[in-house]
């Protein structure tokens, strides 16, 4: 089971790393989120399996280590997007990229869980879009 959890994380991570960084850089965040959300059957299965393993991580140290490692990798990807956005002038210097990454990953987790429970409720994604709009508005000076 540990092997399967690690493989799931590696395949998802690889898919995320292939998301192109293109202008506007902050748009990359939505493309990354789409790779993680259960928007089709394949991703719904991946999300269900991920959360089953994540629940096991609460009581099994080996699973917890994998979850922590995967989270670090994801946070690093998100921070790199925020850094690229800052370098492209889409965000002012000095924003806390780590805090923004943590906030966005928490929103993605919540949207994912809600979509698993209500897969036909497309309004759920509005929460993600609102968070992305807030992040984007931080950079525009509004």
Largest sheet: none
Q: What is the average per-residue confidence, as pLDDT, rounded to a whole number?
A: 87
**Oligomerization status of the protein chains:** single chain
Contiguous helical run count: 6
What is the 3D shape?
globular
Number of strands: 0
Structural classification: mainly alpha
Unreliable sequence segments: none
Tell me the distance between the termini. Answer: 48 Å
Helix content percent band: over 70%
Radius of gyration: 15 Å
Order of helices and strands: HHHHHH
β-sheet strand percentage: under 5%
Describe this structure in words.
With 142 residues, the protein is an all-alpha fold. The protein contains six helices and no strands. Helix 1 (2-17) crosses helix 3, helix 1 (2-17) packs parallel to helix 4 (61-87) and helix 5 runs antiparallel to helix 6 (125-140). It is globular, with a radius of gyration of 15 Å. The model has no long low-confidence stretch (mean pLDDT 87).
